[in-house]
Amino acid sequence: MILPVILTPGATVEGASEFIVAAAQPVAAPFLSRIRQLRALVIDVKGRSQWRPAADQPWRDAKVNDLLPVGSEIRTGFRSSMALRVGRNATVLVDRSTVLSLPVMLRDGDTLVTRAGIRRGKVEFKVDDVRVDDLRMTNDFEVLTPTTTLSVRGTGFSVRWGGLNGAEIEALSADVFAIEVEYLVSQFRLLLREGGVTRDAQPDPVLVALFNTFQQPLPSLTEAEYTTEMSDTGTLQALVVKEGRRVESGVAGTETTEEMVNTLSPEVQLICNNLTEFFGAYRDELAGELGFNSFGQLSAFNDMAVDVAAFCNNLEGFQGDPFDVIIAQVAAFCQTYETAAEIQHCESLFHSLIDNALGGHP
Amino acid sequence: MRFEDARRAGVRACLVVIVLGGCARTVLDSSVVDEYPGAEMELDFIEHVSEQRIISTNDALHGLFLLTDGNDAAANYEERLAESKRRGWLPKNADPVANASMKVGFAAMAGCAILGEKGGLTMRVFGPSPRYCTRELVFLGILPERTEYQSLSGLEFIDFLGRLEDGLPEDGPSDELPGPEDLPDRDPSGDSHTGGDRRGGI
After folding, report:
1. According to the model, what pLDDT value does residue B191 have?
2. Domain span at residue B100?
3. How does DSSP classify residue A23?
4. Which chain A residues contact residue B166 at CB under 8 A?
């Protein structure tokens, strides 16, 4: 296909192959409606790894959950690596002493277009066949090196390019799968439940790809669990949310918590007494109705749920309406959707859940 | 006759220049490590080294320390060279100039030591040498067909280090590095043996 991009005056050409450093720009109006630029999410960092959003920008140290825009460059040192989820369909492991650029990451209708340029080093690519919005996506994934161009259609391999032998292609190692699992476990502890995001109805291809990697969630992850520290008494070490009920350990001076929650409005009681079930249901509703566009968005949902849970656990002495605070948290998360209609739908799903649970209670 | 004499003199002069100049190693004005000495500058060091047409001995040793130790504790080239000899990366009587191009043989000898490669029969009997380490790494596919006297470009050297890293265990370099007592005194060129040393027989 012809890429809907033009080279800006800042574009550079490296070696025998063109590395399109310029940001992709639509060239015709008809493209505008169906092209969406995607980003890459850092899911693992080891050793000395840096990235920069463009060739003329300073390098910055990479961290897990960094979002890399189109045109980003990545470099790693010895015994270092960085793993990325690129767009919606690929996981990329940037191995030792590598320079990689990502000049194109976009969705064009039912095609996911990605270009990855290896200036030197070793990179592993795992490209998944995915469905987005009930559409089976076509992968247009190309790897550019100074001497070769490789096309990937739904498989994985490792590309090494160096000064000694030029381009070499090897089989995919297990590292990419291991990193996907590691990231998944680290990010979604709160939300993993059996029969949750692994359902066929789950439309988020990123999660489907990840769960395909290691089958079903582990039994130990099927219970939502988190801990938080409370500073007021110095003796309450942890508060554990388990199966929608709060269980306190090392309690001293916080015995009023349960009673206090029961004096709150029905909405707040519903949410705070059923944190895991409520946000699990909300997450499922969002996944079914709107989908999650990226790991970052699902991570934001996770953060929002954790924040609300922490708020519920510290209601004592709170002045004002707790429900307003919770609604504000949800509204802030809903802003991660792109269109106004999606944002409104995200918020209305939250209210619908409450209304349904309370039997039409306002 | 006068023209003939002048022509012969010119040919002789050219031969002298070719022989003397051809045998000398390229010496760079400076090394990249002089500008990026710290471990925290590793990525910039790699970036700039990969753009060098020739890798200097100083830069090569710094790169090897970054690969194996994660940092370079040596304050200058002399310390770097001494530590390299202690680790068996270079022959004990080798004395390369800091900014002179690194011999493939020296890089290969360091590679053999880092990977713990013992080589074939000749290398096991006579100890590691630039010549046979080069052949060993060519055999292993880490180096392409090269001789021990050739030089490496910066990009080639970074690729070489990457290939060494691929051959390393997860927890670091080989524990079986040859100590100084394991290394025979020999000519730095290591050109004291003849014959092949490919694994499987001479």
Report:
1. 39
2. 27-182
3. P
4. 96, 122
